[in-house]
Amino acid sequence: HRGELYKGSEKVADIPIDAIPFQATQGQVNTLPFSELPASINLEKLTPSIKDPTGKEIPSKIIVKDSNAFVQFIPKTPGNYKAELFDDPSKKKSVFQVPIEVPVSCIID
């Protein structure tokens, strides 16, 4: 990931950001917590989007409990996913993004 630093409307730098991905389990319901959301965000209007490794959006639902937001989803394949929360159903303004990693499952006899 990369962050951008602005002075007024002028972009002055790109900043590399290392993000530790949320670890999810393939084929099971996973609950991704979205902590540290800005206080100005209306949790009741948030719309989730989870994209699989091919960029296809998969089913997900948002749960709001005790002023915290959680997104539930079931990853079908291993790989790198991306979760985003939008501040409206039209999904125009992303307010939070989280990388998700679904490792390859191994069964050892």
Shape: globular
* Strand-pairing-aware structural class: mainly beta
Number of beta strands: 10
Mean pLDDT: 84
Strand content: over 45%
Biggest β-sheet: strands ordered side by side in the sheet: 3-10-9-5-6
User: What is the string of SSEs from the N terminus onward?
Assistant: EEEEEEEEEE
* Total helical segments: 0
Largest sheet: 5 strands, mixed
- Evaluate the radius of gyration: 16 Å
Question: What does this protein structure show overall?
Answer:
With 109 residues, the protein is mainly β. The protein is 0% helix and 51% strand. The chain contains no helices and 10 strands. The chain has strands at 2-7, 10-16, 22-23, 30-34, 47-51, 57-58, 60-65, 68-73, 79-86, 94-102. The strands form 3 sheets. A 5-stranded mixed beta sheet has the order 3-10-9-5-6, with no helix packed on it. Strands 4-8-7 form a 3-stranded antiparallel beta sheet, with no helix packed on it. A hairpin with a 5-residue loop joins β5 (47-51) and β6 (57-58). It is globular and about 45 Å long. It starts with a strand and ends in a 7-residue tail after the last strand. 15% of the residues are buried. The model has no long low-confidence stretch (mean pLDDT 84).
